[in-house]
Structure formats: structure tokens, C-alpha cells
Automatic annotation (TrEMBL):
Keywords: Glycosyltransferase, Transferase
InterPro entries hit by this protein: UDP_glucos_trans
CDD domains reported for this sequence: GT1_Gtf-like (cd03784)
Keyword Transferase appears in the UniProt entry: yes
Protein name per UniProt: UDP-glycosyltransferase 86A1
Family as reported in the entry's similarity comment: Belongs to the UDP-glycosyltransferase family.
Top-rank taxon, per record: Eukaryota
Organism: Sesamum alatum
GO molecular function: quercetin 3-O-glucosyltransferase activity; quercetin 7-O-glucosyltransferase activity
Pfam family, one: UDPGT
């Protein structure tokens, strides 16, 4: 049989949210650096938003241009989700995800078909977000090797993977006000129902499209050839070992910190980095609490006010990144009137910052976070302990890992979203300078060491990535051979 020399080409499509896009971006660069060709696909509205964002120094187009200049084969393109650019996808979340669930797959089918027809001398394979409801169907139609990227911890993945077990035991949908132990899921010793992912909760069943999408996504991922996890084996060994009994799973994280990739600058803030750094450098080591609840958090003005005045009462120095759209009302005037004047030199309120640079600053002593997985990973990477205040999706489960399993954080409140400013103040004081603060920092540094070593040449994540590349090449080769 003649030797096959067709070059492997990845078609990569991420869910259009920043917590998913960033890992996909870094994975694209990592795969390309291993000799593969890449087509990185953005939703059109994401491309438009990133291109016009006034704080961006380099768009993803610029990043991939720089990568090509360094010798990597990366193409960049966009796909329409079927809505006009000005359509408010967040405000119409249920309608939007209903469309993505039922109508968008046909667009992806046509899109992938055209890519394959445009360059038949490449051997194409698919790298898609686990959350999507279509990857296995499209991979089967076009005979593509199917790689699924899960951007959250393996604990969250295995809960979704075993939705059938949750349903059999009366925990899908799960009543919101019960506290029961779930101890029947393979790879999980025990988890409280209060820490389950929000899509299985009874109160979330109104978001029918998202719940159905997650359900279909996990049905589809059971047909994937490879599953990549943005986590570290040592942190979730039991869960990952159990998953490997079903399919090939590779813990390759933290993906956003892959080594030996082309360097690029992601963003600059309206509030200059120099101003932010100067303010931090005026504060003693470990004296500043960094506060950020991500870019897609829905909560009430009352909660924001209680946290805001709790920070003031604590008398702790803080930086708070306040982004538009954080309130469920859609109101962009987020902070209490006159609050910034009251803060004075105790706090710095900014619209954006380079989170890694801030968390790496010696003045930072803790992170008050919603426990989005990207933020959680970044905090652990920098050895910064967390005060956890999860809202929805994977965040309650991430909190469980941080507080109960890895012991590098505490909860702001127990099992509720409501907060009281006096309790917030006391919790922050204790966290920053109380008796438990030293232990938290020690545990945070242990986790930091695990994450950093995982990406070294002899680390577990680098080893799993190398194994994935080897297995992927063998699978692609066997696929081509079977066709020819």
C-alpha cells in the first residue's frame, strides 16, 4: 500500500463565550505547533464584537497572523449563527439557544461540507465544543475523526455524562431546597445536591433549550473518538480514571498556560496597566483582595450593594473589575451611587484588567470570584486563595472542588445567593488576615505547584497531550487507509 502523505487539518468550532473561546484559541495554537493545519472558526457576531471592542490591542485575526508568520498553518474564518449582529443574544437567551439547538446544526453541516470540498487533499478532522448538539452527527456524515474539548473540570463533565444515573435516582431534575449526597456516580466519592451543576436543578428547567442542549451534547460526546479536558490529572485522578473506562480521555490543562506557543498580546484596558500596577505597588504584600464576577453574571442590585458595602466595612484594600451587563435587570449602572467617592484610596474600580497580571502581583492576597472555570484556574495558577461566590452553570461544582477537595478557598455564604454586608465584611477580614489565611495560602501554593509541573516536559498534562497527538495521528491514518 502506498504511503499516505495527506496533511491533517482540524476544523475547530467553540461555543461563543469567552470561557470557551480562550481554551480553544490556545488549543489551536498547540495543535498547529505539532505540525497540523488549522481552520479556527468564530461566530460572526463574536468576531464583530472583538474587532470593535475599544480595549482590544490585538484581535484573534492578529494573533493567528502572528502565528502564521512564525510558521504555523492557521486559517481564520467565521460562521453566521443566523441572527443579525445587533440581535441581543444574552437578553434572548432561551430563544437563542433553542435556535442553536435546532437550526444551527444545518448551517454547520453546510459549512463543514464546503471546507472539505474546497481542499480535498487535506485530511480533515473535527475539534468541537462538548456543549454542542451536533459534532458526532456531522463527524459521522463526513467520516471525520471527532475530538471533543471540554472546557470545565472533569467533575462537571462526569455529572453531565451520567445524567441518566441522576435521573434514575431522582436528582435530574433535582429539587432546589434539598441537601442529599450523590454517591452513585462512577469516579465521584460523594457530592451534595447543592453542588450539582445548575442545569440539573428544578429551577433551571425553565431554560429548556440550554438543558436540552447539554443533554444532547453529552449524548453526542459518547460517540467522540477523543475527549480533551482542561484540567490536571493529579487534581481529578479518580474521576478521570473512571471516565477512561468508557472512552479515551486526556487531561491536558490548564490549556490557557500551554508552553512554547507563539507569544501574543491579548488586550489593553481603558484603565492603563501602568496605573493599575502603580496602585498595586503602593500596597503591602498580600493586602489586596481582587474582585471579579466575570463577563456574563446575572444577579441583583441588592446583592451588588451588599458586597460593595461589605468590602468597605472590611477595611481591606481591593480591586474590583466591574463589567457591563452584570445585573439581571440589564442595567449598566451597576455600582451604588457615590460608591467610588466613598472608596477613595482603599479600592480601585476598573472596567477591565489583565487578570493574570493582577493575580500575579505580590500585593494580591485573595480573589473574590464567581468560580467560572477560567478564573478558578487562573487563581490556582498564581497561587491565590479564593472566596467563592458561585451563581450558576458549573460554578457551584467548581466551588466544591476549590473549598472541599483542594482546600484553597472558602465560601462567601453557604448554599444561597443572598448576602449581608456585615457577614461579607467579617468573612473578608477572616480570609485576608485571620488564623485560617496562612493555611489557605499554603494549600493554594500546593495546587499552584501541581498545575505548573503538569505542563513541564515530564508533567502529566504534557504527557497526555503528547499521547493524544500520537493517538490522533494513528486514528487519522487508519481512517484514510479505510477510505482508500
Amino acid at each position: 500500500m502506498a504511503e499516505i502523505h495527506r496533511k491533517p487539518h482540524a476544523i475547530m468550532i467553540s461555543v461563543p463565550y469567552q470561557g470557551h473561546i480562550n481554551p480553544f484559541l490556545n488549543l489551536a495554537l498547540k495543535i498547529a505547533s505539532n505540525g497540523f493545519s488549522i481552520t479556527f472558526v468564530h461566530f460572526e457576531f463574536v468576531h464583530h464584537r472583538l474587532s470593535k471592542a475599544h480595549h482590544c490591542n490585538k484581535t484573534h485575526v492578529d494573533i493567528f497572523s502572528q502565528a502564521r508568520e512564525s510558521g504555523l498553518e492557521i486559517r481564520y474564518t467565521t460562521i453566521s449563527d443566523g441572527f443579525p449582529l445587533e440581535y441581543d443574544r444574552n437578553a434572548n437567551f432561551e430563544e437563542y439557544w433553542g435556535w442553536i439547538l435546532r437550526e444551527f446544526p444545518a448551517r454547520v453541516d453546510e459549512f463543514v461540507g464546503k471546507i472539505i470540498q474546497s481542499d480535498p487533499y487535506l485530511v480533515h478532522f473535527l475539534v468541537a465544543d462538548t456543549v454542542f448538539s451536533w459534532p458526532a452527527t456531522i463527524a459521522e456524515k463526513y467520516n471525520l475523526v471527532n475530538v471533543s474539548l471540554w472546557t470545565q473540570p472533569a467533575l462537571v463533565f462526569t455529572l453531565g455524562y451520567h445524567l441518566d444515573l441522576l435521573r434514575e435516582n431522582g436528582h435530574f431534575p433535582c429539587k432546589d431546597n434539598i441537601d442529599e449526597e450523590v454517591n452513585y456516580v462512577p469516579g465521584i466519592k460523594s457530592i451534595s445536591t447543592r453542588d450539582l451543576i445548575s442545569v440539573v436543578k428544578e429551577s433551571e428547567q425553565g431554560q429548556y433549550s440550554m438543558v436540552e442542549s447539554v443533554h444532547m451534547g453529552f449524548d453526542q460526546v459518547k460517540k467522540a473518538d477523543f475527549i480533551l479536558h482542561n484540567t490536571v490529572y493529579e487534581l481529578e485522578a479518580e474521576t478521570l480514571s473512571a471516565l477512561n473506562k468508557y472512552q479515551p480521555n486526556y487531561a491536558i490543562g490548564p490549556v490557557n498556560f500551554f508552553k512554547n506557543l507563539p507569544s501574543y498580546t491579548v488586550s489593553k484596558s481603558l484603565w492603563s496597566e501602568s496605573d493599575c500596577t502603580q496602585w498595586l505597588e503602593s500596597k503591602p504584600p498580600s493586602s489586596v483582595l481582587y474582585v471579579s464576577f466575570g463577563s456574563f453574571v446575572l444577579t441583583s442590585r441588592q446583592v451588588i450593594e451588599e458586597i460593595a458595602y461589605g468590602l468597605l466595612l472590611s477595611e481591606v484594600n481591593f480591586i474590583w473589575v466591574v463589567r457591563e451587563g452584570i445585573l439581571s435587570s440589564g442595567d449598566t449602572n451597576i455600582m451604588p451611587d457615590g460608591y467610588e467617592d466613598e472608596v477613595k484610596d482603599k479600592g480601585l474600580i476598573i472596567p477591565w484588567c489583565n487578570q493574570i497580571r493582577v493575580l500575579s502581583n505580590p500585593a494580591i492576597g485573595g480573589f473574590l470570584t464567581h468560580n467560572g472555570w477560567n478564573s478558578t484556574i487562573e487563581s490556582m495558577w498564581c497561587g491565590v486563595p479564593m472566596i467563592c461566590y458561585p451563581f450558576l452553570y458549573d460554578q457551584p461544582t467548581n466551588r466544591k472542588l476549590v473549598v472541599d477537595d483542594w482546600k484553597c478557598g472558602i465560601s462567601l455564604c453557604d448554599g444561597t445567593i443572598s448576602v449581608d454586608r456585615k457577614e461579607v465584611a467579617e468573612k473578608i477580614k477572616s480570609f485576608m488576615s485571620g488564623a485560617a489565611s496562612k493555611s489557605l495560602r499554603q494549600e493554594a501554593n500546593k495546587v499552584k505547584t501541581i498545575l505548573h509541573h503538569a505542563l513541564e516536559v515530564d508533567g502529566s498534562s504534557q504527557g497526555y497531550f503528547d499521547r493524544f497527538i500520537k493517538d490522533l495521528k494513528e486514528k487519522i491514518h487508519s481512517t484514510i487507509t479505510s477510505i482508500e
